[in-house]
Every structure is written in structure tokens, then in C-alpha cells.
Amino acid sequence: MASALGSFPVVVITGPRQVGKSTFLRREFKGFSYLNLDDFSLLEQARHDPASLWMDSDEVIIDEVQKAPRALEAVKLEVDRSGRRKRFLLSGSSDLLLMSKVTESLSGRAVYLDMLPFTYREMRGRGGRPPRLERAFLMDFGEQEKRVRREDPLPHILRGSMPPLLGLSDPKDILMWWDGYVRTYLERDLRELSQIENLIDFRRLLVALALRAGSVLNQSALARDVGISQPTVFRYLRLLEVSNLVVRVPPYTASRGKRVVKSPKLYFMDPGLNAFLAGLHDSDALSSARELGGLFECLVLLQLRAAAELLIPRASIYFWRTIAGREVDFVLERGRELLAVEVKMTSRPSYNDIRNLLSFLEEHPGARGGLLVHTGSAFTRLHGKVMAVPWWWLGT
User: Fold this and answer.
1) Residues 6+ away with beta carbon under 8 Å from 361
2) For residue 102, what pLDDT band results from cuts at 50, 70 and 90?
3) What pLDDT digit, counting tens, does each position of 231-252 carry?
4) At what angle do helices 199-210 and 219-226 cross, to 10 degrees?
5) What is the DSSP letter of 346?
6) Backbone dihedral region of 279: left (phi > 0), alpha (psi from -120 to 50 degrees) or beta?
7) Of 14, 56, 108, 218, which is most buried, counting CB atoms within 10 Å of its CB?
8) Is 245 within 8 Å of 186 (Cβ atoms)?
9) Which regions of the chain carry the CATH code 3.40.50.300?
10) Distances, alpha carbon 126 to alpha carbons 70, 102, 308, in Å
11) Is CATH 3.40.50.300 what the domain over 2-114 is classified as, yes or no?
């Protein structure tokens, strides 16, 4: 963050509510003037005379900036007028809505960063080291990986990874927190973004999505099952993406000679939110649930997204699936480098678990290799280009 701010006059941070954007900015940049547009008085000022907000400061934080799009144009003018002397940190919980405005007004002046829920390492109070994903691209796992342990993913799925949950230990308190999070989102954030005709229909859509964890998105079938029109489903899905509650993973389509699925997969940004909406509120229900595999993918995806953000250049995340049904859960692309990742809800990975990975590697011989991510403790080389690794390793 500090290095980005040294190179660009504007840094834009987006992420879901309660992920810790405001806390981070106020703690790490104490010398900056802090403006939160959740304050109605400041919001009105930002809408009518934004430049007056930072007239007496060269270093400014504007929180929830998407509420006053006009302020972005004023920031652009101020950056240019001051010869890029002034520095702005802009944050918002509405990613796509904010980014569309920023793209128009701050081109060449801003760098954009995503703040995600905690990774496994951060949940354990650790951080600051380069992501192991860098080593995975090199297929370099080192001697230290012989020291292994098992970390049950189920408690991490049930709890979720949002920072406020760290201080909660009672399962009932965790459920109450997620209930309040969903209610606040429905009653506040969505109504600021767009008119929702029927909150009951929207809540039913959330549950239907939660029960399809990790599935290829079929909007027609979703609309039919929920009982609302397809255009309404499309708009509601867009709102969920704008507000950072779901992430769309597109298909990897570099293959020219093969027929591949073209629809994306959809995941919730946090496995705890997914489990809560799916009605999976305890370990017994989760361990026997049909959705467990998809929820485990959601947990792994969170670790991958956070690590991919730290790579330079960043890695993009896709999935690969053929019409014949062969599928690799995630494909990471960094420049021309490819790393395939298969996720298996098993504690004893075997050669039989990597058949789809091998199919992908055969079709893409230039790929670095593949990872089989599992729930056990072992680091096992299952093939010359495939390594089995515990899930928690990705988030460290």
C-alpha cells in the first residue's frame, strides 16, 4: 500500500462491508485527514462542494466514496492542479459501481487494490510474508514442507473469515453476527445501490445461490427455481457483484480445438456467509451436506484470491470445464504462466484424484504444473508436474 501511494497520487481500495477497510486506513495512515461519507453532513458537502473537504490537507482518506461520484472528478482536478503533490486514499464497498466511475475520471492517476476477508494465516495473527503461491508457480516446495499438520476446514467454513468474527467463540454469536450482516446488507446497502422490488424474492435468490456453491451459473434455471424473471435475476446478480458479496469465476477458454463450457461459476466472497445462507449452522449439518465440496472450494478460492493479489504481476483466476465434463476447479494465469488447481474434499489424496488435472496439463503442455488441494496433512508428489498440498498452505 505504502509503495503504491509513493508511485500514484490516488489509491483505490474496494471490498465488502466489515472487511476492515476503514480500520486499516485509519490505523496505518494516521497523518491523513479522514472523511467518511457515511456521515450525512460530509456526504452533502461532497456532493455539492467536494474540493472544500480537502482544501487544508495534502493527504486525504475518503471512505465510502462511491456515495458521491462527483467527488471523483474533483479528486482528478485536484491531483492535476497540485502537480500530483496531493495524495488520496479512496475506499468503497461497491466495487463495480465505483470502478466504472474511477475508470472514467482517474485513468493513469490511480492504482486499484482489493481488500478481502482474512486468509488462514491472517486468522492466526500472522502476515507480512510473500505468498507461497509464488513458489507454487515454480513448483518449488522445499524441504520444510516435510513438517506437516492437519487443519480441519469445517470450523473455518462455518465461522467465516470476516475480521469481526475473530473475537467470537460462541456458535450462536457467530450466527447472530451473520444474520445481522445479511439484514444490514438488505436493508441498507442494496437500497442505496438500486431499487429492490421484493426483498423476499431477493432473499430467496441468495439462498438458491448458496445451495449452488461452486456450480456453473445457469441464470435461466435459477430464475425458474426462484420464481422471478431472468432479467431480474441478472440485475440482482449484478448488484451482488457490485457490493462484493459474490465473485464470478470465468471459464478458461484459451483452447482453440476443444469445446469448453462458456458460463462462469459463482462463489460467495466468504464461505461463512455461504454456509449461513444455505442453512448449515453446525458441524454435523455441514459434514453431511451435499454442498460441502462447493463450500470447501469457496474457502480455497479465498486463499487463492488473496495470494493472487500479492503477486506481481497479479494472477487472474479461471476454471476449466469441457462439454464432456472434465473439470479443473481453478486455473491461475500470470502473464503466459498457467497453474491448475484441483480441490478435493479428501484427507488422503491419490493418483485417481488428479485425472482432470492431467487432462488439462496434456492439453496445455506449457503450464507450470498443477496442485491438488486437500483436507489432509501430506505434501505428496503425485506426478512429475502435480503436487498434493494441504488447503491451509495456500493461505500462508
Assistant:
1) 340, 367, 369, 370, 385, 386
2) low
3) 999 988 988 888 889 999 999 9
4) 130
5) -
6) left
7) 14
8) no
9) 2-114
10) 39, 33, 18
11) yes
